[in-house]
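Sample entry (137 residues):
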Amino acid sequence: MSETVIPINRQYEDSEIQYGACRYCGQMFQIETLTGICSDETLDDAATAKCGCPEAEQEQHAKRRRERATKAISELFQEDEPEAEALLLSGLEHVLAGKIGSVQVQSASGVKGKISENAKGNIKVERNVSQKTIRES
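Predicted structure, serialized as tokens:
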């Protein structure tokens, strides 16, 4: 039984065509590389990202969730609350894995941050700035 190889159109003159296999189903993909010879692991990662099998799609979905949540945490906390950002990012993996329902931090300046997973499976990132004014006379 012979394999059919469908050549891909090269986008770059100095590129090289290498092959990678999906980690889950073994489907082979042609990968265009610019840096010369890539490791098998790198090629397999690229092939898995291209594959449409259910397991690969599930991994791609989890990766997108992680990237969106990381971006949201950084956008909300990086500039003025880097310690809160670091704590929330460290707890993110546990929330994504379903080991922890939510992670909440409160800074000394009164900024509260919380990450949690909602009923739809989306990661919710909250920032709450509480300012209280009390006067005694």
